[in-house]
Design goal:
Helix content is 12%, strand content 33%. With 157 residues, it is mostly beta strands. The strands form two sheets. It has an eight-stranded mixed β-sheet. The protein has a three-stranded antiparallel β-sheet with strand order 4-3-10, with no helix packed on it. The termini are far apart.
């Protein structure tokens, strides 16, 4: 049986914190910083956020009309159960981008518009966060490979 393709289906940014993100399709990931032009990028442990399309689909089944980025996620994936990845897992995306998982879910201090519309928000439970170990250009369609936890990362010199 063939393994389903794990891939990026959206790349989203917002210029201000606390707002929904917009799908830009392609963007540069800056090593140890985050997505170029995104308000949440910075030198901390949550440089980028990821959410599985399958997780968002559960909200769509509840009747919500949502777009990629509406939960504040930077990277929307398909074919991978992000919430089950252990902290420390390294993802390889496209031609050499590597991201280490640093946090699963998050505490929401304020209820977002999605929560008030649907009575629920999935980002606190199913979104993951990571730090950029190796930067590069990420775009819709890039394949994702799960490297073993603690895998050695080889970078070009």
């Amino acid at each position: 049986m063939k393994t389903p393709t794990r891939k990026v289906v959206a790349v989203c940014i917002s210029e201000k914190k606390g707002t929904q993100k917009s799908d830009v399709g392609i963007r540069r990931l800056i090593e140890h910083f985050g997505l170029e032009g995104d308000a949440h990028a910075g030198k901390w442990h949550r440089q980028v956020s990821l959410l599985a399309r399958e997780s968002a689909d559960t909200m769509r089944k509840k009747g919500l009309t949502i777009r990629d980025g509406d939960f504040g996620e930077n990277i929307v994936t398909e074919g991978i159960e992000l919430k089950s990845l252990p902290i420390g897992t390294v993802l390889k995306i496209g031609e050499g981008i590597t991201i280490r998982v640093t946090q699963i879910g998050k505490l929401c201090h304020d209820r977002c518009a999605i929560y008030y519309t649907a009575g629920d928000c999935i980002m606190p439970r199913e979104g993951i966060f990571g730090e950029i170990l190796t930067g590069g250009t990420i775009q819709t369609g890039d394949e994702i490979e799960i490297l073993e936890q603690g895998a050695e990362i080889k970078t070009e010199t």
